[in-house]
Amino acid sequence: MAECRQLERALTLEWLETNGRGGFASGTVAGAQTRRYHALLLTARNPPSERIVLVNHVEEWLERDDATIPLTTNLYPGAVHPSGFERCVGFALHPWPVWTYVDAGYTITREILCVRGRDLVILRWALAGQSTHAVRLRVRPKLTGRDYHALHHENAGLAGEADVADGTVTWQPYNDLPAVHAVHSGVYRHAPEWFRQIQFPVERQRGLDYEEDWWSPGEFTFELTPARSATLLLTTEPTAGIETDELIRAERTRRKRATATIKTEDALARRLWAATESYLSERGTGQTVVAGYPWFTDWGRDTFISLPGLCLVTGRTEAAWQVIESFAAHVSEGMVPNRFPDAGEQPEYNTIDASLWFVHAVDRYLVATRDWERVRRIAWPAIVQILNGYRHGTRYSIRMDHDGLIAGGVPGAQLTWMDAKVGDWVVTPRHGKPVEIQALWIRALTIGERYAKKCGDVEYAERCRIDRRSAVASFQRRYWYAAGGYLYDVIDGPDGDDASLRPNQLYALTLCDDLVTREQAEQVLRVVHDQLLTPVGLRTLSPNDTRYRARYEGGVADRDGAYHQGTVWPFLLGPFVTAWVKAYGKQGTGKKTARAFLDGLEAHLDAACLGHVSEIFDAELPHEPRGCPAQAWSVAEPLRALIEDCGVHKQNKVEQKQAVGHAVRKKPPVRRTKTKGTA
User: Fold this and answer.
1) From 281, 466, 500, 572, which residue has the greatest number of CB atoms within 10 Å?
2) Model confidence band, residue 670 (pLDDT cutoffs 50, 70, 90)
3) What is the sign, positive or negative, of the torsion defined by CA atoms of 55, 56, 59, 60?
4) In the chain, helix, strand, coil percent, each to 5?
5) Which CB contacts under 8 angstroms, 24+ apart, belong to 196-200?
6) pLDDT surpassing 80 at residue 658
7) pLDDT for residue 519
8) Residue 233 near residue 242 (C-beta atoms within 8 A)
9) pLDDT tens digits for 488-531?
């Protein structure tokens, strides 16, 4: 891999290992840390929240009689030291990150892996290739002990002692943080030292503080032979009974089994499928979805948009149910949480759409599992609370208006997914009646009517039917923007109706069959295709708009000001592909064209965080990846579209029978050819 030795390029290629508990290890192919979030032992004290960085890095040297050869790369002010990347000849991502170094006849591999469900990371070094002679390896860990959003600097309050036992060493630099235990196969020498002014260039680019000091307690020495590797396990867990080699064997087996469950031969779908597990995490006794790495935890909106792609098309229906059950327990005033904070237990309820996405995800779960009993007992009461909350009114003036549509918004609040805010400036307030909220509401009423009938509640079913009829009629009458050939983004806002060309209208095409005519759907798709579509996602605003921002760069205010004003979001390829196939069919050119819209993501999987899809991209060529380098819905929605709409899923015989049976029972959708009161 020639890129390993190209420092500028290798610093942009990131790797990610997650542990299913909100913790993770990450870094660059070059070996240097470029973000404050890059670390080896980063754990979540209250999974997936309250993340702390405990071990940032290790410094490594090979020692021969005549020389000391560094394998490490670090960035200091105006200097790269040491420059171990120059000896790197290979990097592999599977089954976990593996580097290969060559020097003076020696070939050394280094592996880094997290074990699922455990707060630990394992490093292993081995002689490979034609190496026949022993060589000494020195390893010096670098520690901090800080919130993962913060930075660490040299201070007198750090406790520099070590508790050394046979095969284990323990450090606890700060009393209010967990101790770090090292289980090793070498010899430890305690020799504390500070490494100062480590540079994080990505943080500098983002307009943030970018310099940190690391404390190193001492060194490990290992003798590498062709028959003996070196291992270093770092953990906050008790070390009694830990067998490093057994953990490695078990994790390798687990990953092989996970790969064997991928039921598609499509290359892009296989890689996206393989990435999905990274975003599932424990929360309490259940599961949740981490919205993105490295800085997001679990967000309600992201969770339920992602759930079909992460869990349902991949067969993880039990995980999907645990996520649904976890959020159902937190319904308040007809709302599910938008976010669980990094610290503390009080969730935040500041979204107009997360609750409606919850209803949609529950129905997708029911279609996938037919597990009505669970849905009836746990999810249906939560859905009733949501429907009633939106009908009667809840936080932030979210309410059903006299026309049956959902309105919401108060000054200073950002309630939709376009939620950037800089100080008191809400960049895209979208107060009033956003288009996607109406599609979600009408979809929720459809589900409410159907579930009420199943429960024998005829009166509630009729209420949902009447409310839905009113909302559909209002939508058909109000949302078509004839001058542009697409749908208004928001109506009845503080400044009237908003005809900004944005991708939110796609949900009116995908979630319901009766909001637009076929001709209108095709016009919307043409306009979106011509002005918003890029190879890696959809722009959030037309380039013809005076507010359009071509680049997502600069300080916090500049970046947030561009976040939804043109910046490309790859998750929107999901509804775009679904709408395209719905309009043009799954047969012939419709499906083939839709599949081609996703081709650009395949190259991206090897361009930023390897094997993952970034949160956002610049709106113009070369569409530089930005934001979180690994985002849940950026993986989930393209995968869902590939499986459900492009048909790349490889079914077994049982699934084929179920699919045939479902197709027989399902009535074909009614296509409206003319809508009263629309152009």
Assistant:
1) 572
2) very low
3) positive
4) 35, 30, 35
5) 196/154, 197/76, 197/77, 198/33, 198/74, 198/75, 198/76, 199/75, 199/76, 199/77, 200/33, 200/34, 200/35, 200/36, 200/38, 200/75
6) no
7) 97
8) yes
9) 999 999 999 999 999 999 999 999 999 999 999 999 999 999 99
d(CA 350, CA 395): 8
Which two structure tokens, joined as six digits, stand for 295?
A: 């800085």
| CA 679/CA 662 separation, integer angstroms | 36
Tokens of 17: 């290992």
Distance CA(133)–CA(225), nearest Å, equals 6
Q: For 88-119, what is each residue's pLDDT tens digit?
A: 999 999 999 999 999 878 899 999 999 999 99
**Tens-place pLDDT, residues 315-361:** 999 999 999 999 999 999 999 999 876 666 688 999 999 999 999 99
What b/e readout covers 517-554, taking b as 16+ CB neighbours within 10 angstroms? beebbbbbbebbeebbbbbbbbbbbbeebeebbeebee
Asked if 192 and 160 count as a contact pair (C-beta separation under 8 A), the reply is: yes
> What values do phi and psi take at 519, rounded to 5?
-65, -40
Q: What is the pLDDT of residue 343?
A: 65
Global confidence as pTM: 0.94
In Å, how far are 273, 366, 612, 632, 674 from 263, measured between CA atoms? 9, 21, 19, 20, 41
Q: Which two tokens stand for residue 185?
A: 């196969």
Amino acid identity for residue 522 in this structure: E
Report the pLDDT value the prediction gives residue 339, as an integer from 0 to 100: 86
Instruction: Give the number of C-alpha atoms closer than 13 A to the C-alpha of residue 31, restricted to the C-beta side.
Output: 30
> Residue written as tokens 């037309």?
542
Is residue 668 predicted with pLDDT exceeding 50?
no
Distance CA 651, CA 264 (A): 8
Structure tokens at 243: 């067998």
Bridge-partner residues for 143, per DSSP?
55, 215
Residues found in the chain: 679
| DSSP 8-class letter at 396 | G
- Report whether 53 contacts 146 (CB < 8 A): yes
Q: What is the DSSP letter of 339?
A: B
Note whether 280 and 319 are within 8 A (CB). yes
DSSP for 102-131, written as a single string:
EETTEEEEEEEEEPTTSSEEEEEEEEETT-
H or E segment and range at residue 579: helix 573-584
Mean pLDDT of 656-669: 41
In this structure, are residues 528 and 516 in contact, taking their beta carbons and an 8 Å threshold?
A: no
Tokens of 274: 């393989």
**% of the chain beyond a pLDDT of 90:** 90
pLDDT exceeds cutoff 80 at 563: yes
